[in-house]
Amino acid sequence: MKQVQYFEGRATVRIGRISVTTLLDGWLSLDGGAMYGIVPKTLWEQQLPADDRNRVRMAMRPLLVQTPTNTLVIESGLGQAVAPELHERYGIDRKGPLLGELVRAAGIEPDAVDTVACTHLHWDHSGGLCRLRDGNYEPTFAKATYVAQRGEWEIATKPSNLHKASYTPASLTPIEQRGQLRLVEGNAEIVPGVRFEFNGGHTENHAVIWLQDQGQSGCFLGDLVPTASHVPLAWISAYDINAGGSFHARESLYPKLVATQAQCFFYHEPEYPVRRMLQSGSRFLAAPVS
């Protein structure tokens, strides 16, 4: 059985003039059967072994991005969005600094962050967009514009019974109340050199995020491909709202990742999170980038 080399540091890579640093907001452990959907345990456990409760341990890795014109945070970790009494249920292990402090530790003052974007707004990806102060949520980055897909925002802030376990509206609505929200629809520029590519699949409005400069490319995959072990086309999580949509989105995206030699950022990857997609016949795999 594979020995997982858990990566707890920061990885910094360049995409042309864009600097990208992976942060770590802690860990969560979710049921392996749910994370790998129809894939038999005898296969997925060779890639990411389960604990004695059949859970796989995964990271939460926001990105700190510096372009020639902007300073961004992509995804936000869990933050304080989930009540402590629920941490055991989800195997949450985050005792370290909140997102603003993680950014500061990487050499950027929180007030210098001008843009924040998320692939989608499930609580393990959006929980750090706001922080608690005196019992109330407020935006983590006071001077930033928060960019989200309109459809995702509408579901996240007013979730139906189907969605309510996946979102924490109270940790999101202060962004709109303070006038820091910008909503887009579908493929859209976030800032120059950084853009959404709409995919759907994992959620109805999931969008991966491309970073491009000077002929080089990177792609933050969100939960379309949560870890490098999920790269095989059919290794799709049961948490995806539309598994068929995820499959077709991967079919469309992977050849572009290969053709552009994009550096791929895996949000939940427990090991080194920056990879490059390779193709061998009809199969794809993700090789680490040093």
Q: What does this protein structure show overall?
A:
The protein has 290 residues and is an alpha+beta fold. The protein has a single domain, classed as 4-Layer Sandwich (Metallo-beta-lactamase, Chain A), CATH 3.60.15. The chain is 17% helix and 29% strand. The strands form four sheets. Strands 1-2-5-6-7-10-11 form a seven-stranded mixed sheet. Strands 12-13-14-15-16-17-18 form a seven-stranded mixed sheet. The longest helix has 17 residues. The radius of gyration is 18 Å and the shape is globular. The two termini are 24 Å apart.
Break the fold down into its secondary structure elements and pairings.
Elements: E1 12-15, E2 18-22, E3 27-31, H1 32-36, H2 41-44, E4 55-59, E5 63-66, E6 71-74, H3 99-105, E7 115-117, H4 123-126, E8 130-133, E9 136-139, E10 145-149, H5 150-157, H6 173-177, E11 181-184, E12 188-191, E13 194-198, E14 207-213, E15 216-220, H7 243-259, E16 263-265, E17 274-280, E18 283-288
Parallel strand pairs: 6-7, 7-10, 10-11, 15-16
Antiparallel strand pairs: 1-2, 2-5, 3-4, 5-6, 8-9, 12-13, 13-14, 14-15, 16-17, 17-18
Sum this structure up briefly:
The chain is of the alpha+beta class. The protein is built from 7 helices and 18 strands.
